[in-house]
Amino acid sequence: MNDASPSLRSPLHERVIGVPLGAPPSPPEPDLKLDPKLRRLHLNESPLPPSPRVIEAVTAAARDGAYYPDFACTALADRLSRMTGVSKDVMTFGNGSGDLLIAATLATVGPGDEAVMATPTFVTCGRGVVLTGAKKIEVPVRDDGVTDMDAMIAAITPRTRLVYMCSPNNPTGGPSSREELQALAKAVPEDVVLLIDEAYFEFGRFAGGVDALDIVRERKGAWIITRTLSKAYSLAGFRVGYSYSSDKSIAEALAKSRPSFIVGRIALAAACAAVDDRDYHEKIVRTVSQERDRLAGGFRQLGFNVLPSATNFIMAIPAAKPAAAFASALAAKGLLAQAMPWRGPNGALRMSIGTAADSDAVLETVREELAKA
Ligand SMILES: Cc1ncc(COP(=O)(O)O)c(C=O)c1O
Predict the structure, then answer these.
(1) So what's the architecture of 31-49+280-371 in CATH?
(2) Ligand 1, closest atom to CA 240?
(3) 52-276 domain in CATH 3.40.640.10?
(4) Is residue 56 within 8 Å of residue 68, measured between CB atoms?
(5) How far is the CA of 88 from the centre of ligand 1 (A)?
């Protein structure tokens, strides 16, 4: 395969990736292969496998693999509608919820428009905004990692077309309160889309947090909520996400921003089986939440400032040395964690909740690293 010709120009490439087509390649990503020696604690995946009922369902669905799937994902929509009372015609399904975040930007903003979002927050919506030629307006989160709602509201201008709100927030972990979300839902003008990313919704609920649906149902203006089967249903590899919208036209605009049949037959069968197995789903949320609190406690005992988390990951801020030093020590033992520049001189370590053995290995390695000069 030839390298891209230096004369080939791609504005999209420059805008989104930040480098011209034909520029030297970026350094390789960490090894994402399913190497059993590596513990992937950098992608907020579930440490539990999918439900046994999922495995049965996908095997059965594979027999019909010659046929396109139901593009409306009716079987899953029926289940979600029964669970929430949301009408099926305001639901849209995606190849993961990240897919719907991009679709939401394509459907709402363009050149000259602004989209307000926190920083740091989950990157995909911001990437979509840049892709459309609109401008990101980034509002620093509070020191505890939770979105600064007053500052978000103050950042809304007549050019704002989209407000992206991730709660609980990735990468910091903290959920916004009911009052904060209500204030935002009230302050965002009716013709501006309020996009709430609830990828960690089930963990947030387990921690006693709010359901954004209760809040946006009171809102007169436009809204979208995105959720995923990747985290609390252990289906990240299947790629199924969904959204609820304030009205049918938004749901349709999201669906039409991508090719048809975006959720495959096997992924759909997996999602339905996972949603049906309530006991297993609750076990995932409970196990991960309890292990998260244990891991957070261990980091606190080692002198880290662990931010509040209602997710399947924690963010731990070291006092003693840079987060990158801990990430390297962990990587040397096959434990992949993410060192991030936010916040303070040492940055922070973000790490997903793995098994109890993973937490023990992490804490042991961190203790060893602290003991070094
Ligand atoms: C806040 C948030 N939103 C969306 C996603 C996308 O998840 P998926 O595309 O697997 O549904 C993630 C993944 O980590 C996330 O953290």
Answers:
(1) Alpha-Beta Complex (3.90)
(2) 11
(3) yes
(4) no
(5) 22
pLDDT in tens, the chain (373 residues): 444 455 555 656 666 666 655 666 666 555 455 677 789 999 999 999 999 999 999 999 999 999 999 999 999 999 999 999 999 999 999 999 999 999 999 999 999 999 999 999 999 999 999 989 999 999 999 999 999 999 999 999 999 999 999 999 999 999 999 999 999 999 999 999 999 999 999 999 999 999 999 999 999 999 999 999 999 999 999 999 999 999 999 999 999 999 999 999 999 999 999 999 999 999 999 999 999 999 999 999 999 999 999 999 999 999 989 999 999 999 999 999 999 999 899 999 999 999 999 999 999 999 999 999 6
Q: How far, in Å, from the CA of 113 to the mean position of ligand 1?
A: 24
Q: Is 197 in the pocket of ligand 1 (CB under 6 A)?
A: yes
**Contact between residue 164 and residue 125 where contact means Cβ atoms under 8 Å apart:** yes
Q: Quick one: which atom of ligand 1 is closest to the CA of 44? A: 14
CB of 103 closer than 6 angstroms to any ligand 1 atom: no
Q: Quote the CA–CA distance of 118 and 258 in Å, as a whole number.
A: 26
Ligand 1 geometric centre to CA of 170 (Å): 9
Q: In degrees, to the nearest 5, what angle opens at C-alpha 283 toward C-alphas 278 and 289?
A: 130
Range(s) within the chain of domains with CATH label 3.90.1150.10? 31-49+280-371
Question: What gap in Å lies between CA 211 and CA 238, rounded to an integer?
Answer: 25
CATH 3.40.640.10 domain extents, the chain: 52-276
> Strand (E) positions, 84-207?
91-94, 114-119, 135-140, 160-166, 193-197
Q: What is the DSSP string of 182-216?
A: HHHHHHS-TTSEEEEE-TTHHHHHHTT---HHHHH
Q: What is the dihedral of CA 326, 327, 329, 332, to 10 degrees?
A: 170
Using only C-alpha atoms, the chain has a radius of gyration, in whole angstroms, of 21
What is the 97 CA–ligand 1 centroid distance (Å)? 6
